[in-house]
Specification:
Composed of two chains; the small (or glutamine) chain promotes the hydrolysis of glutamine to ammonia, which is used by the large (or ammonia) chain to synthesize carbamoyl phosphate. Tetramer of heterodimers (alpha,beta)4. Pathway: Pyrimidine metabolism; UMP biosynthesis via de novo pathway; (S)-dihydroorotate from bicarbonate: step 1/3; Amino-acid biosynthesis; L-arginine biosynthesis; carbamoyl phosphate from bicarbonate: step 1/1. One of its GO terms (molecular function) is carbamoyl-phosphate synthase (glutamine-hydrolyzing) activity. It is an enzyme of class 6 (ligase). The chain is of the alpha/beta class and about 375 residues long. It has 2 domains: about 140 residues, Carbamoyl-phosphate synthase small subunit, N-terminal domain (Glucose Oxidase, domain 1); about 210 residues, Rossmann fold (3-Layer(aba) Sandwich), CATH 3.40.50.880. The protein is about 25% helix and about 30% strand. Helix 1 links the parallel strand 3 and strand 4. The longest helix is centred in the last third of the chain and has 21 residues.
């Protein structure tokens, strides 16, 4: 049994037993409160560069399967948990969490006092941390150097165009770290889906003749991606567009709004969001550390559509003239409740309707 430690930049140290790959790592220490869905979390590209603390006390009970991964790799920098089940019991299980961590060279700790760790994160705000093998010298000086958003997005995004589905409605996903469940949903709605890298030239995107655009989720500080703001705005003004999570933030920034960092982020499957048109409360899946600053949104251009019940942060916007919609939460809901899957359905229906109107005008 190998001992390890999570060392925070504040000087606090949390001890546990080492699991996975025997290599030290640095990351932003965050926590997720979901009771299920650890496989989706570990493979979510939005977690790139982060050490994720899983607050549910027992992880691994249903193992790892081939269906629930959101990407082809584990994306987290590291993982921290309390109790780890090494003998999962589920008919789809094909590997344990320990096995998959070793396969993808991801380090972690188990038997950590995750409650105390979450209290520390809530006290200090999201902080940098380092997973280290136990050191014989307690005064060892640790460095906490993190990658910027450009490097993180480069790490998780596709490097060349990918196509799937065979529907009559063509959706292009501009990939900053997309989740596979988004693609599966669109394909099931009768769409042909083309995924292009975040740096894809706007003329190349137009040459694909998309009927609609989806700006994906992804990792990092959105304001560090300012080089792509003009392209995002140009694309959004050329085609019906939906922005999800990071995509929501990038569209807002492209129109002159600002973003700010939350104290410890929204990460979990039980975040209540209010629809500002109907007053209805939806329970949503979320994973983000930044939000759009409400005062910075030009409300003569964008109508605010959703807000978080707990802190009133901006959770959605809609352009008043153009078919541009954004949401901060994850309507595809993997993992999480499916209260807001209608947003993706409505987007596809809108795209199909606008396509029919365009074709009718050409006749």
């Amino acid at each position: 049994m190998t001992k390890g430690q999570l060392v925070l930049e504040t000087g606090e140290v949390f001890s546990g037993e080492w699991i996975g790959y025997r290599g030290e790592c640095v990351g932003e220490v965050v926590f997720n409160t979901s009771m299920t869905g650890y496989q989706e979390m570990l493979t979510d590209p939005s977690y790139a560069g982060q050490i994720i603390t899983l607050t549910y006390p027992i992880i691994g009970t249903y193992g790892i399967n081939q269906e629930d991964s959101e990407s082809n790799h584990l994306q987290v920098a590291g993982v921290i948990m309390n109790d780890l089940c090494e003998e999962p019991n589920h008919f789809q299980s094909q590997a344990t969490v320990t096995e998959i961590l070793k396969k993808h060279r991801i380090s972690g700790l188990k038997n950590v006092d995750t409650r105390s760790l979450v209290v520390a994160i809530r006290k200090h705000g999201t902080i940098k941390g380092k997973l280290v093998l136990e050191k014989p010298f307690p005064d060892y000086k640790h460095e906490f150097i993190l990658s910027d958003a450009k490097k993180l997005v480069q790490q998780v995004a596709v490097t060349s165009m990918v196509q799937t589905g065979a529907g009559s409605c063509h959706i292009v996903i501009v990939d900053f770290g997309y989740k596979k469940s988004m693609v599966h949903f669109l394909v099931n709605e009768g769409c042909k889906v083309t995924i292009v890298p975040y740096h894809y030239d706007i003329e190349a995107i137009k040459a694909l003749n998309p009927d609609g655009i989806l700006i994906s989720n992804g990792p990092g500080n959105p304001s560090e991606l300012q080089i792509y703001f003009p392209k995002i705005r140009a694309v959004a003004e050329s085609f019906p567009t939906l922005g999800i999570c990071l995509g929501h933030q990038l569209i807002a920034l492209a129109y002159g709004a600002k973003t700010e960092k939350l104290p410890f982020g929204h990460r979990g499957a039980n975040h209540p969001v209010k629809d500002l048109q109907t007053g209805k409360i939806n329970i949503t899946a979320q994973n983000h550390g930044y939000v759009v600053n409400r005062e910075s949104v030009n409300e003569s251009v964008f109508q605010l559509t959703f807000q978080h019940v707990h802190d009133n942060s901006v959770e959605g916007m809609k352009h008043k003239q153009l078919p541009i919609t954004t949401v901060q939460f994850h309507p595809e809901a993997h993992p999480g409740p499916r209260d807001t899957t209608y947003i993706l359905t409505d987007f596809v229906q809108q795209v199909k309707q606008l396509k029919e109107e365009y074709l009718w005008e050409k006749v």
